[in-house]
Amino acid sequence: MRKKQDLYMWLAFLGLCSNLTITVHTNICALYRMAEVPSGPSAKFLIENIHTMNELKMTGNCLKGSRPLLTFDSMFDKLPYLKCLKELFIQVFGTPYYHPKSKPFVDHVFHFSVIDNKIWFRNYQIINGGTSLVEIGPRFVMNVIKIFGGSFSGVSLFENPHYIPPNIHRRLLKKKAGMKYRENVDAKLALAKRKDGWVYQEDPVEDIFDE
Questions:
Q1: Greatest C-alpha distance within the chain
Q2: Are 133 and 117 in contact (CB under 8 A)?
Q3: Is the Cβ–Cβ distance between 142 and 163 less than 8 Å?
Q4: End-to-end CA gap in the chain
Q5: Among 138, 176, 197, 207, which one has the highest count of C-beta atoms within 10 angstroms of its own C-beta?
């Protein structure tokens, strides 16, 4: 793990980068890591509910290289760990001043909101002279795992108590499905047992019209 961290730091040094983001895809999940280099802090996220622009087919659009506005809901000013993430998002997603590849205008908005202890990302186009917004995509949810004091390592500043690893989440779903199946089997056995005890009484006038 230490060799990977050294490689990340070396790549940031070669690219003259002050911020670095890394996405790791596995068969189970996608992990997203962002850090300020070389001193930190850094954060690790689990990416959930990813929907690409081709999948959503939204009507909004924006120019490549244009500056985004970053907006945050009020929760980012209330909790200490969200204040840290807000500053990290500003450094990572914001456009540096006088960047040679940036355009001198703003036509879209990055919005970050906190719902169910997770961070929801949305991308909107600014239309009608700034009076309306139209979603562009992509959209995804970031589930915070840990915040570190250094770049990809160091003291753990925050650990999400609500985070459930994907393996455990799948195990709980299978266990819940197994319990439901067991309940259905028990219900069928109980119904069959009740049917065996049922006694049908003969109706004295049932065959009165058969004669």
A1: 104
A2: no
A3: no
A4: 92
A5: 138
